[in-house]
Queue: 3 jobs
Job 1
Amino acid sequence: MKKTLVSMWLIFFLLLFASCALAVQTPGALDGSSGPVVPTGEYRIQIGDALDIKFFYHPELNESVIVRPDGRISLQLVYEVQAAGLSPEQLRQILREKYEPQISKPEIAIIVRSFNAQKVYVDGEVAKPGLVPLAGPMTVLQSIASAGGLKDTARSNEIILIRRGPENRPATMLVNVQKAIDGSDPTQDLSLQPADIVFVPKSPIANVNLWIDQYIRKNIPINFGLYYNLVPY
């Protein structure tokens, strides 16, 4: 009787927690939408980026600069200029206006030579969560591989991709990388953009096991192994 009662309570808790876990892990709830992720538009200069400032008619003013932690760059004649947060074209227009009173024909080109802030963040059920450098084109699966791969507890059919949308509002999308892995839908392996977040949630059974460990095994003095060993064959 005692074994039956314990088994009934255990099954009840498993079913209850499994249903709660699935509700909590609904990714669309993060921003009220599970629609497509939208591109962020033009590249914005970031702190630490290396820029080449080229003057077509005044090469003596050419500069190679690093965007400082305060977001500014230092240039001849115009001194301090805010660069972080601007597109290269916006910075070019600002520099033209600043140099116009100083020189004739201030035709300028802005070249982003290296991208310091090109990174994505991979978190959740991966072997090595953290920042992953975005040195070139990268997909969701490639970022996960760079983070050590999926754990056995990962929910590979509901990975969450978070990206800054218009006005820096987060947009989310569910990605089923299991379909990309088995080849049934390679389009699920989406290309990433700088500052994307790839979050790999726990599988429902992993959430159940965690809950049992935290709230039953550590708090209720029941020897589950003993009861199962006593079950007659």
Job 2
Amino acid sequence: MAFTFLVAKGLEVGKSIVEPDWVEPAKEMLAKAADKGVDLLLPIDFVLADTFAEDAETRIAGREEIPGDMMGLDIGPASTELFKGTIAHARTIFWNGPMGVFEMTPFETGTREVALAVARNNRAVSVVGGGDSVAALKKFDLEERVTFVSTGGGASMKLLEGAQLPGLEALLDR
């Protein structure tokens, strides 16, 4: 998702995954956040690779320095520290989606460190949603250290949007 937002900001992202249909909505979200004075945190650096593989050639680069022949597969160390600092002071954490391809060792650090930061903040209510995020918690043995785990990441996002969910609607006493 980060690369779609970076493209919306006019940056080149090399071979990184971008959702073309979401570039315009991302522009609108960035504008809305700016209008409301909301700081929308996006990664400032990435672990890049020349191919999607465990043994890929990797390097770290800032978000304005992604070469056309490489792709971002994890957030970089500066982004990791930025997110950890924000998470440490949060009172509510809603996490949906890993920071990178945590299933491959060279690209697991961002997700692991963010998961640890969420687990360490015992003052916050922490909700982790989505199958990939839950898999990351399990991989790093942290699922018992968050407030709530939801395997329905898409439904969780819809609920936050204010959408009516049929399962919840059926439970309401009207």
Job 3
Amino acid sequence: MLKTRIIPCLDVKEGRVVKGINFFDLKDAGDPVEQAKAYDAQGADELCFLDITASLEKRDILYDIINDTAKKCFMPLTVGGGVKEVDDVKKLLYSGADKVSINSAAIYNPKLIKDASDRFGKQCIVVAIDAKKTNNKVCTSGFEVFSHGGTKGTNLDVLNWVKKCEEFGAGEILLTSMDNDGTEKGFNINLTKKVASIIGIPLIASGGVGKLDHFTEAAIKTQASGLLAASVFHYGKFTINDVKKELKKNGVPVRI
């Protein structure tokens, strides 16, 4: 049986780690390189580094910070934010990223997923999806995809979009519930189950962790292969090892 991956996430703005609630009210949470080193020492299975305002501000991602982080950490590193073309993917991989996450650009140019996947291999192409509950009748699943750091609705139904991403060559999906993000009320089990049930590629669930048993609930009730969290790790509520011990105690296979 595949082991569940525990993945801390560094949301970075202007070179600093930040965390908010429902994608807003961002507060400083430390230096990204130092945070990454701490998670590496704690035994994180991977690290996700998202430059959350790069697309909104229409600027390049912070390559120097990526390079610094990659040099000081030995876990796989997924990097995203501001990726607009295949050349951006190449730059990130050359800067030390193991996988590259594409969000907004993929929505407006889905061929980017295919071009990047064909050139570098699907194993290093992640499509990040920010989803929110909606009454939009076009979105029959009840969840709409948002772009540009969760600020723009797209009229895309999350289930339709995730299938297209897989067809275009995405190797993994990073799914964030905007409704649960930063609330500490747990993963969005309903959304995660819906998405996991229709794809054949790995799914990382994100948004809403506040307690150790939230990880166990998501691992047992959904088919997510990775569980991502941010603020509970940044502010020391518990460690990666605490999470893995809790999961192992409840029969969930993890790397200790």
